[in-house]
Amino acid sequence: MKRVQFEHSAVPYLFIAPQILIICIFFLWPAVQALYQSFLLEDAFGMSSQFVWFRNFEDVLSSSSWTRSAIFTVVFSVLVSVLSIAISLFLAVRADEVIRGAKSYKTLLMWGYAIAPPVAGLLGIMMFNPLMGDLYKAFNSFGFEFNHIENANDAAFIVILIAVWKQVSVNFIFFLSGLQGIPKSVQEAATLDCKSPERRFWTITFPLLAPTTFFLLVINLTYAFFETFGIIDVSTKGAPGGSTATLVYKVYVDGFLGADMGGSAAQSVLLMIMVSVLTVFQFRFIERKVHY
Amino acid sequence: MYQSKWRIFTNHTILVLGSLFMILPVWIAFASSTHTREYIFQNGLQFLPGGEFFTNYGAILFDAEATKGRVTALEMLFNSMVLGLGFAIGKVIISMMAAYAIVYFRFKLAVPLFWIIFSTLLLPLEVRIVPSYEVVANLGLLNTYTGLILPLIASATGTFFFRQFYRSVPDELLEAARLDGAGPIRFFIDILVPLSVTMIAAIFIIMFVVGWNQYLWPLLMTTDDQLYTIVIGIKQVYNSLYEGGQIPQFPKAFALTIMASVPPVMVVVIFQRMFVKGLVETEK
User: Fold this and answer.
1) B189 has a chain A CB within 8 A of its CB
2) Which positions in chain A touch B103 (Cβ < 8 Å)?
3) DSSP secondary structure letter of residue B1
4) Cβ distance A115 to B260 under 8 Å?
5) Pairing outcome for strands A40-42 and A49-51
6) B65-107 pLDDT tens trace
7) Pick from A222, A33, A197, A3: which is nearest to B174 by CA?
8) Which of residues 49-108 of B touch A (CB under 8 A)?
9) B188-224 pLDDT, tens per residue?
10) Cα(B149)–Cα(B88) distance, rounded to whole angstroms?
């Protein structure tokens, strides 16, 4: 908060009103409705509904498809985050060292941020199209019996590959900015003390980047949870047999295509609790970082 | 700083490989979009462009038949533009105002209102998608630009960006402005807004890209082709690839993905500095 502020008047209410109004109508109302719906059991035609307390939650938590989807979501999110962070950190360190052409590399590696997830999904799945996909052909010519239409692991591999591809540029931008924020004097001192670039990286550079890495981990987990919806919907659609459906995708499939409103709402509420924990964590961390 | 020749060589090799990893899929999509469908069907994806650029892109831009709907890619591009600009402009204005109230005023409801705004960060639209759809339907806003844009603005990320920025503005400015007799609205318009221009531009660019790339929400609430954005058009064309027993229209599907990507990529590349500034300074 500011030391100096304006006195009490109607002005702040005027300024904050549009935001609060939109939030009330398009955020609070649906959120409350989701909560309410998660306690209701509707008949198949949506004609009548009955208050059933926690039965929807019990059903969801005990269903094998939700558990499987939850496990997939966690494995998927962790793999996507770790892989894309590792690749972009590696690239950013190299880009930071390069003097000639540094700007071109930066441009070449960051534009991917602007690609929409479904576009990435389409590009990816076309590369693995059994009829003409180059990657599909290449994999199978090496003797892998690659078949993402029937094999769940192969399908998961494709979704992870696309999600990582899409996320590398964002992480790259953050790491490169982080690296360029390290004072020249520190880097020069490090070069004098330690000849090996690898040791220099692990003992000096990486600890300095640790806050950025941690921040990116949270960002990437959120990305893998939510923004990969478009990738999955265009590439595998959760197939085979729901094995590549993340929790968000399952909410959509059950609620919109399966018309199971109560179950879908209960899933939303569970997801909301998971994300809240993640976000509070993130916010506290960011706040702390901003203040030092 | 001294670097060995070998280190310089590996650095460039790694960066070239990394750039290729990013660019190759898009390049293959572009090259394949410039061949006939028969050629792609028989020979697979292509690395070199063919001679059908104008035929394919012309068809997809102006002929609704090519996009498997009642709407051409040109109209979809227009819808995407409305969504991107509307979302970015709305978000910037509304969040600037709300952040101003939060940072510069001490008022009775400040704390509860702040928490209401903060709570939106906990719950992305994806999670409350089904009830959001019902609310928008109840309000009669399905298949309207308003219904498309407003629910997306309901998340307060922008407010927190501006809150962070205002807090870094020196207090002396406000003291000086008050000595000169400026009221709160005057101070906002004459001093704070001009001071925030680079910040506004940076957030505007990020939000434009975010809005342009929206998928799940437009997918649900636009049942009318007339409101399809180009990102939604991709799903439409992809789904109909194998319909009708004809040779699949891969080239036109690729042409559509290229057109969906050119505007946001151009914005990011042209306004690179601002974009990076916004992304790094606001999110950290």
Assistant:
1) no
2) 1-2
3) -
4) no
5) antiparallel
6) 777 777 889 999 999 999 999 999 999 999 999 999 999 888 8
7) A3
8) 93-95, 97-98, 100-108
9) 998 899 999 999 999 999 999 999 999 999 998 888 8
10) 10
**Digit-coded pLDDT (tens) for B111-122:** 899 888 888 877
CA B156/CA A196 separation, integer angstroms: 46
Per DSSP, the three-state class of A6 is strand
Contact by Cβ (8 Å): A102, A110: no
Per-residue pLDDT at A45 exceeds 70: no
Provide Rg for chain A, Cα atoms: 24
Q: What is the pLDDT of residues A212-224, one digit of tens each?
A: 888 888 889 888 9
Residue B245, Ramachandran bin (φ over 0: left; ψ between -120 and 50: alpha; else beta): left
Distance from C-alpha of A263 to C-alpha of A40, rounded to nearest angstrom: 9
CA distances to A31, A111, A180, B123, B190 from A42, rounded to whole Å, are 18, 46, 56, 24, 55
DSSP state of A224: I
Beta carbons of A286 and B284 less than 8 angstroms apart = yes
CB atoms within 10 A of CB B198: 14
